[in-house]
Amino acid sequence: MSTELQTSGISKSRSVVKSLLPELRTDAAGSYLLCIGSKELMGFDPFLSFFEYNMTHTLTDHPHRGFETFTYMLEGAQTYQNFVGNKGTIRAGDVQWLTIGRGIVHSDTPTGEGLNRGLQLLINLPSGDKMMKPRYQEVVGEEIKKAEKDGIEVKVLAGESMGVKTQVFSRTPTMFLDVIMKPGTEWHQSIPESWNSFVYILGGEGVFGSLKFSTDTAHPFLVLGPGDGLSVWNNSTETLRFVLFAGQPLREPVVRNKSFVMNTKAEIQKASEDFQFHKNGFENARSWSSHPVSRL
């Protein structure tokens, strides 16, 4: 074991076991999605799907049940509304966490000038929490806790790093860290050994897990293997920025369609019926609709 790992409390750094190119998708209005979907993340419990997106039009009122969404705004702004009365606008650097639980109908509208770009991760909920009351959390960038040391800056979006803990609560235990490393720096982060983890590179190039593996934004999605932490080196002359995601596996069956994520096909059918007949969490869907939102 290296001296750096010993002093960091890591006994085995995770290595990159797979690098993926996100699939580029566009819709009729011109929005793009760089997507790592359910097929690529199959078995990568508790994660369901991951997107880097540029929102150009409103995602009109639509239902969900049974999972959580984490949204991190990189550029521009977007406004969120749902049928239990939550409404908010997140801007560059802000975080939105939605625990959907038993049911939400909501809309998202781009409200910034130019690009409205962000990251969104869908995380499964344990079976015991799928019918819980929805919960909405929003943290502006200035309030996100940050750790800084020796040329490294870590925004703690969820979890803990360098002795700094997040103020965001997730039902499924998770860690989301936005890391910026200046040239010539190294960083060592503990990760619970049983958790799954991946890295998404936003800029620059770095060495992840092993000095033998270097990557850049040409292959931005890195699946990490077993270990109790991650070591990263920036041996380049440019700044490296990436987001580290990690989560505790639920080890439960997953059945999903475009709107709902449950444990069985019968539960998916029940969710569809509940939405159609406005019951079991979807009562407000009978009379609610989102309001028009103007650009900022």
UniProtKB/TrEMBL annotation:
This is Pirin. PANTHER family: PIRIN (PTHR13903:SF8), PIRIN-RELATED (PTHR13903). Residues 177-280 form the Pirin C-terminal domain. Coiled coil: none annotated. Belongs to the pirin family. It holds the Pfam family Pirin_C. InterPro entries: Pirin, Pirin_C_dom, Pirin_N_dom, RmlC-like_jellyroll, RmlC_Cupin_sf. It comes from Protea cynaroides. SUPFAM superfamilies: RmlC-like cupins (SSF51182). Residues 55-121 form the Pirin N-terminal domain.
